[in-house]
Structure formats: structure tokens, C-alpha cells
Design goal:
single chain, Rossmann fold, 48% helix, seven-stranded mixed β-sheet
Length: 326
């Protein structure tokens, strides 16, 4: 039987805590109905026996204190709410225990911004890790040695797993159920809980927010210029000249400050404007394309799909509320 330790961090979000426990324990019920033995021993593991969660609205009762768990097979770190620095401080006692268990053979999975607790262990330095796209800038700033992949719903590397934003944690739990219990049980779980099992990325949910949590004033000026003039054709040389910087110096500093190249940033600002138009107006795709400064339909479609994971037509069909009500 596989021992699963679902952590109960201080400030845990109840949904990802209870949803994880429920999915794994439901697998045991499915197996029992088939005359098979249970597969998972699921325990809630806390710093204390009782932990306030979801901003203190609920109290979670742990089955066991982390110090009393000598060995486990999988540690699941749920999402936490509020200030992430404060959440790390409140839950720092978990960190050496997670590290010790991993080196003893346990696997570790983080859900949404639970990735911050995972990253604090150092176990994902040099590895890929996903988290909620809203927390991406803070994550990069706090954990520069981790390869953040904001487009991914799931990462799986050397026994360490992570999930993207919010309810995409359900896809990671299904992924683990498939890995441990087989495809048919995972599909049954998806059907019973009405989870879309084949989602692979969170690109279409991302709202681009220009990364300005840095101290490079010249790069902030470049960002502001791009955001005000995205309808125009902006070149790297034009920005370099405006800021009295060499092109290579500008590109190096821009990448360091924003985690995007200049060209990537321009593309993302343009596509964010296109997304807003596709969500809220009746303009056709070509009208939107011209409005944001693209003249080549193929280049626009390619860039749009690279950033959002959907074609402009698919995105408009999915998110334009006015059209969807007709």
C-alpha cells in the first residue's frame, strides 16, 4: 500500500487539501467495488493536530504530526493563501522533513502556489516547476535557480511534481492516480468528479502582467513605452536609441529584469491587447490583428497560439461572453 502524506500547512487553501484527500481515498472505494485491495493509505500531516485553513474560516484536523511520520511514499503540498513570504515562515518546519523524506525515497508534489514551499527546500533547483501564473513574478524573484514553466499544468521530474494555477491541481492528482493505479481508474475518477482529464497547459488562462517588480528604471521606461505604443512597429534599436543604451546592453538588462526578451515582451503586450478585444468586442480576427499592429495573418495566428495555446478563433469562441450567449 502506498503511503500518501497530504500536508496541512498553516494557511492552506481548503479546496486543494480536501480535494486531494478525497480523490485518493475515492480510488480505494473504486478498487473495493472491483474486489481489489485498497491502494492508498492517505493521511493528513500537520505541524500541529489542528490547523486553521482558508483564512481561518475552517480548521483542519491532522491525522498525525509530521515528526511522527518516519517514512512516506508521496508528500502532497497544497496551495496556501495570503502573503507567500509569511506562509513560508509559518511552515518552515516542514522544509527539512520534506527534504529528508525525498532523499529517503519519497516523491513530492506541489499544488498551485504550494510550489513556494517546495522551492524553499531547494529540491527543484535546476529543475522545472509550475505554479499559478499570477505568482510567477514573485516566484522568479524568490527562486531564481528554479526553471519556472508558467505554461505547464503539470511537471514531472525525478520524483518531483508540480501543478499550475488553482484547480489544475486536480489534473496533477489524476496524473498521479494514473501513474499508481492505472489509466482506467484515472478515467473513472475523472468521470466521477467531472474533471477534464486531458488538459495540458494553462496558457489560455494567463493574463499577462508586465514584470515591473525590479529596480531598473531604464527597463521600466522601455516597458511603459511598449505598453503605450504596442499598435506601432517597435524595434529593439529604436528602444536602445531612446534610452541611450547599446543594443546588447538593453537586451541583457531587459531579459534579466522581465524574464522576457524585448521581442517576446512586445509580442505578449500585443497579444494581451488582442485577447481583450476577442473577449469583449464583435470585431473579427483580422480587425483585431490590424488594431494591434500585425499585418501578416499567419504570423499573428502563430504568435497568438504560441502564447495562449489556442488559435484566435478558438480563443474568441471560448471567452467571448456576448457571442457565447447567442
Amino acid at each position: 500500500m502506498k503511503h500518501i502524506s497530504v500536508l496541512v500547512p498553516q494557511g492552506a487553501i481548503l479546496g486543494s487539501l480536501e480535494g486531494t484527500r478525497q480523490l485518493f481515498t475515492e480510488v480505494n472505494k473504486f478498487l473495493k467495488a472491483r474486489g481489489a485491495l485498497p491502494l492508498f493509505n492517505v493521511q493528513l500531516v500537520g505541524l500541529t493536530k489542528e490547523t486553521p485553513v482558508s483564512g481561518g474560516l475552517f480548521t483542519a484536523h491532522a491525522d498525525v504530526i509530521y515528526k511522527d511520520v518516519e517514512k512516506t511514499d508521496l508528500i502532497v503540498i497544497p496551495a496556501v493563501d495570503g502573503d507567500l513570504n509569511a506562509a513560508l515562515e509559518k511552515n518552515r518546519d516542514f522544509i527539512p522533513w520534506i527534504t529528508e523524506q525525498y532523499h529517503a525515497g519519497a516523491e513530492v508534489a506541489s499544488l498551485c502556489v504550494g510550489a513556494f514551499i517546495l522551492a524553499a527546500t531547494g529540491l527543484v533547483n535546476g529543475k522545472k516547476c509550475a505554479t499559478h501564473w499570477l505568482a510567477a513574478n514573485d516566484f522568479r524573484r524568490m527562486f531564481p535557480d528554479v526553471e519556472l514553466v508558467t505554461e505547464k499544468i503539470i511537471t514531472d521530474e525525478q520524483g518531483i511534481y508540480s501543478s499550475g494555477g488553482a484547480f489544475s491541481y486536480l489534473n496533477l492528482i489524476l496524473y498521479l492516480i494514473e501513474k499508481y493505479a492505472g489509466r482506467d481508474i484515472a478515467v473513472l475518477s475523472a468521470k466521477v468528479f467531472a474533471i477534464e482529464i486531458e488538459r495540458e497547459d494553462q496558457l489560455s488562462f494567463v493574463v499577462f502582467q508586465g514584470q515591473k517588480g525590479h529596480e531598473d528604471d531604464s527597463i521600466k521606461k522601455a516597458q511603459e513605452f511598449i505598453e503605450k505604443n504596442y499598435q506601432e512597429k517597435i524595434t529593439v534599436d529604436e528602444l536602445a536609441s531612446m534610452l541611450a543604451l547599446g543594443r546588447r546592453n538593453l537586451e541583457r538588462r531587459f531579459k534579466k529584469a522581465t524574464a522576457n526578451t524585448v521581442v517576446e515582451y512586445i509580442q505578449r503586450v500585443k497579444i494581451e491587447a488582442a485577447k481583450v478585444s476577442l473577449e469583449s468586442s464583435r470585431e473579427n480576427v483580422n480587425e483585431v490583428m490590424y488594431k494591434i499592429g500585425y499585418t501578416d495573418p499567419k504570423a499573428f495566428r502563430t504568435t497568438f497560439k504560441k502564447i495562449t495555446g489556442l488559435s484566435p478563433v478558438q480563443y474568441r469562441s471560448k471567452y467571448n461572453r456576448e457571442l457565447s450567449l447567442n
